[in-house]
Amino acid sequence: MAKKILEVNDIHSYYGHIHALKGISLYVEEGEIVSLIGSNGAGKSTTLRTISGLMHPRSGSINLGGTDITHMEPHIIVSNGVGHVPEGRGIFPKLSVRENLDMGAYTINDTPKNSERIEQVFTLFPRLKERVDQYGGTLSGGEQQMLAIGRSLMLNPRILMLDEPSMGLAPVLVELIFDIIKKLNKDGTTILLVEQNAQMALSIAHRGYVLQTGNIVLTDTADKLKKNEMVQKSYLGIE
Amino acid sequence: MKTFTSNPFYKFIIFPVGQMLAFILGAGTLLSVIIILLAYIFRGSVTNLDLVERTITILPKVLIDGITIGFVYATIALGYTMVYGVLEFINFSHSEIFMVGGVVGVELLRYFDAQGSLATMNEYVVIGMAIVLGMVIAGGLAVTVERIAYKPLRGAPRLVPLISAIGMSFILQDAVRLILGLTTGEFNVILPQFGTFDEFQILTIPGIANAVQIQNKTILLIAVTVMMLVGLNFLVNGTKIGKAIRAVAQDRPTASLMGINVNLIISLTFLIGGALGGAAGVLFALKVTRLDPFVGFFPGLKAFTAAVLGGIGNLTGALLGGLVLGLLESFGASYLGIFTEGAFGAEYKDILAFAILIIILIFRPSGLLGQTVGQKA
Ligand SMILES: Nc1ncnc2c1ncn2[C@@H]1O[C@H](COP(=O)(O)OP(=O)(O)O)[C@@H](O)[C@H]1O
Ligand SMILES: [Mg+2]
After folding, report:
1. Assigned domain for B327 exists
2. Which residue from B21, B81, B164, B215 has the least number of CB within 10 angstroms?
3. pLDDT of B372 over the 60 cut
4. Does any CB of chain B come closer than 8 Å to the CB of residue A203?
């Protein structure tokens, strides 16, 4: 059996009095694409935010490749190998494309290696190379998503968490982004993918979890989920 | 062109210094032209002197005074604006950080004086030591205040840390008063006489009859503030730390996802802002020669105004706002009395300066330059 990279154990997270996660447990094995699907407000982003340390769970634990990261600060968790492309992409609008990519490698002081990584990102997203001196805020939505993904690859993360990468993008760009995700996975990156676009997510994922109001209501292989009646009705628009 | 503008010497020396000169020349020339025009218009209604000649005679001194106090305001304003840029929070205790810097600097000079060594030491070394000590103490104090009074309130509604900052102001004023009272029994601190800072340099400009006089301490003040502003520009726009500061200012959660220790960067912002305020305090003390625990209030308020005038959160804006406010104030102080034949004296300078400021803000509500720290200068 493959090694579990990430293991989330019964976490409860709150925004003030709002009980957003009511005992989430999930795991991701090395080399997998695992998808988290669910409607708006189900707690998908909160799950990722809790894993990357942007917020801390009130109870439960999070384990990354044998290390307990439950109470670590986000900047420490990043250097432990968790890449998080947040919802809305989190591009620094007044930093150039190159500076945004540099920020992705903030924790390592290795200029030649950075340049090499930036070149790799440009091979993956040639469009970014043309825009290298432009402010991040002037890019189109698709280009920003490419930049956000490229930036998260600068540290070569052990697990890459993507929060709704297809949001607001035209269908061709959604295809492109999903092709890239597949390619990254084939090249060895483990991926935890949050999507409202369940159709697309389940088409590339190995396994999936279905979230409803802070609870995991269903988990299975992607193929079985696609055939599940409830999933078809609620998330795939099949009656 | 592109290779020239990305040359570090251009980017970090020529450009910021040129920008300062442009602001000084721009604002100075504009105000000078306006005042001379006004003098022509009103020369008939002022009878006991030649208004135009009088206006032009004192103009160089008015400009120099305005630029000098303008640089002080700008240096303090940077502390407000940097913190605002990163936290969107007005650090009202910054005026007291400025005061503490000044008091600490003067106390060091008084210590040397009491030792009898002040007269024998190099004056520039001594003032340099006072500035550095003022910067260290003020910077450290600003970081401490943030840790104690602001950080625990970071998730609270915006008014709460603001109240905490105002409370911190009173606490710092009274703490300084208490310490001074216990140690010296007197809470006015008076700068000891030393060196040649009060002497004048005479500049004769060809074609102008009256020579321009500049006090040595004025030259020192301008030189030190210009160096600090150039240094800050390099730090923010030319270093990795500066890039992290800009990233935190633009998007705090994402900055932490990049591996930036956001709390450390926030502390650093307070450290830099506090150190600049402390240096300004020592230079201000050199200029006014007498401080007390409440001396920070007016310069602090004006520097805050300067920051808003330039566009709060904008570093270049703080510089421009400081210089404009300093010049407005200096013009008001010198010309109000002359133009109104004494009906309105120099004490009305603030009313004039703030009236003009309100007018500017009505037309440009986000300040003259109105962007944020996140942006490259
Ligand atoms: N900043 C916030 N403050 C208060 N409540 C929030 C905040 N962000 C999310 N929530 C609430 O937490 C729940 C889960 O939200 P989220 O994780 O963003 O859902 P999803 O990503 O699945 O759409 C929702 O009920 C949402 O209203
Ligand atoms: Mg979401």
Report:
1. yes
2. B21
3. no
4. no
